[in-house]
Structures are given as structure tokens and as C-alpha cells.
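Entry 14. Two folds queued back to back today. First construct below, sequence then C-alpha cells.
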Amino acid sequence: MNDQISALKDDISFMRSLAQAGQGGPISGGAFLVAAGGIYGAACLAQWAGLHHLAGLEPSVTQWSFLAATAVWLVIWIALVAAQKKRALSGAAGANRSFAIGWSAVGAAIMVNVAAVWIAAFKTGDYGLFNTLASSGLAFYGAAWLVCGAAARKRWMVITGGGSFVLSIGLALLINDTAELLGFAFALVAVLVLPGLHMMRQAARA
């Protein structure tokens, strides 16, 4: 246990040194968070509307909303990466790198978790396991915010991370209820869209 704690401290110290190298400038990447939160939040609302036969939508169509959202997200992600390469923010290279490392690791973890849940669902026939993805995803987001907040020494990121954990537990209480979709949409706005907009404003001022 002591070795694990020591290794975690070393990892955070490494990311903090990267962040401190460019602590004077803003952190980019807000557009990625806004896009991801907005796209998947819209998918949640579309699926919820389909389940309740609202706005002319049907479950047979909206059940594919998350796959469609992923396709749209990949296209936008590629465009944002290309745009970011053309517009580097001076004075914040270290902070941007630590932010990118943290969120890239979380993105990989989420994809592995999704794959693992799919495998478990098909093997056991318990497709209700898919309903755990929203709660676990928010827990991963919380981890990313806590690590980035500790590295960059930004309290609002740490607070956002704590909020992500609280929302993760809240969604677990809504599991197997269509209200979980509305809760997840709200959570995505709270922990991705709003923080992303804040980061974009800071970058624009620079």
C-alpha cells in the first residue's frame, strides 16, 4: 500500500511539474469538453424523448443515439485536434500537456470499461449492465478533474472532480429508470460543458 501511495504521489508530482512549467497561461482543451458534453448530452435527451414518444421520436430510432453521437464526436474531435495544432497557446505548454495526459488516460479507461461491459452483458445476457456506464463514466471524469486540479493547483477543478463523484452516486440511485438519462444529460453539462466554457473564456482572454 505504501508503494502504491508513493507511486501516486510521484505521478502527481510529475504532472504538477508539467503544469508549473506553464502556470502563467490558460489551459486549452475546453472546446473538447464542451463538444463531448453537448453531443452526448443531446444523445441522452434524444433517447429519453424516444422512450416517452415525444417530439415524434420512437425508441427504435433513438436507441442508436449514442452510436450516432460517437460518430459525430469522432469527426469533431479530429477537427478540434487539427485546429489546436495550428493555434498553440504560449506560456501554458506544461499545463496543457498535463491536462491532455489526464484526459487522454481517462478517455482510454472509459473505452476499455465500455468494451468490458459489452462483453459481460453479452456473456451473461444481463443487458441492464449497460445502465451502469453513465455512473462509471462520471467517476472517471471525477478522477480526471482531481488529477488535473492537483497538477495545475486549480481549486475549481478539484471541486468539479468532487461534484462528478457525487453525481456518479446520484445516477446509481436512478439506474433502470428513464430519469437516469435526464440526470446524465444534466451531469454532462455540469462537469464538461460549463467547465469547458470557462476554460474557453480564459483562453480567449489570452
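Second construct, same run, same settings:
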Amino acid sequence: MINQPVKKKSRRKLKKSVKRILTAILAGIFIIVSFFIVRGITDRPARFISENKHINNFQDINPVHLRYAVVHGISPVKSGIAFVKQANDLVKRKQLVRINDTKYYVVNKLSHSHPYLVPEAEELLETIGKRFQQKLKEHRKDDYLFRVTSLLRTQESQRKLRHSNSNATTVSAHLYGTTFDITYRSLIKKTILGRKKVVYDGAAITLLSETIGELRNEKRLVVVTERKEACFHITVRN
């Protein structure tokens, strides 16, 4: 007689706890399904946009890049540790500018370089971005961002790069902070929710190549098309 009410209470508690668990599971499933539905909507258009692509075969060789790098750049830094110690001072003296993502381009995760350029090179990077956006609008393309894959290197990082890239030279214009690489493998598109998605649009990449070629003709830069690394290796000229 005394034990019966206790059993009923424990059963009620058990039923409530089961309901809570089931409710939590259902809520979790709903959130996951909703996420993938929204993601599916915001991921449009598809990653592959168009194949038609023409890349100019620019052939300004390394000695040409070095000629302008020595004039406009900083003195090469020996190592990453040395650069970390000098970076703030170089920025304060306006010899270098830190390069971050902008509305024109995205800086890739860097493995052999640091996100810094001399002010003239940073200005050139912005100019490429503005002109590229203008061309995209003229051709009724989406507002793509291009990807910067390499910037200032130290002598140490350049030596390490030579082990993995046979095309890398001992003395590179990247050492002077005057030079950056822009990949032509793909572009970046921002979705409605602000996510950055890698896309391939051959027609837009052609416009990027044209933009760089026009600035080369204006003697604003020198550039070589690197096929193995699939990038434009660019040094500021004036």
C-alpha cells in the first residue's frame, strides 16, 4: 500500500524525461534539416559557372621583376622570426602595409609568405580589384573576388619553397614586398548569408587576365603567367 504511490511517481518522472529527450532529438533533427535547406538555397549558383577561359601568357622574366623590386621594396628579411620583430616598425614607418581581405579580393591562408606589401604594391592590388569589378559589371557578371595566394617572403621561406616548387628562384621579388600572386584557378563569390564560396567562371577569369594586361600596357606593373602554380606573378612598376 505504501510502495504503490512511489512507483507511480517514478514512472511519471521517467515518462517526462523520455519526452524531454525525444523533444531534444526532434529539435536537433529540425535544426540540421533547416541548415541544409538554407545552405542549398544560398549555394546557388553552382560551383562551376562556365568553362570559356583565356589566360594571357605574360612573360616578364625574374630579372625584370627584380629591377623594380629593388627600387620600390624593403631590404630582404632573413627569417620569419626576424620579420615578426621588424613588422610593426616597418608598418609604423609606412614601409609596409598589412594586407587583409577587402571587397575586391581574399587573401588565402599563407604558408610561405606574410600578408604585407609596400604601399605602392597595396595600391596596385586595389586598382586591379576596382578595374576587375568594373569589367564584371560591364559584362553583367557576378561580383566575384579574386584570390591572393602569396605576398612578402623572407629569405628563409623562399629557401623552403624551393624544395617544394622547382620553379622558385633563390632571389625572388617577393623578398622585397613589392610582389604578389593572384591565382587564376578560381574566384570567390559571397552568398546571401556572407559565406565565401570558391567558384569557377572562365569568362570572369578572362576579364581578370584582361585587367592585368591593361595595367601592364600602362606600365603600372610587370607580370609573368606561372602555369605550374596557376597564378599571375605581379610586381609593382611605378
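Quick look at the second one. The chain has two domains: 1-42, 48-236. The first strand starts at residue 48 and ends at 50.
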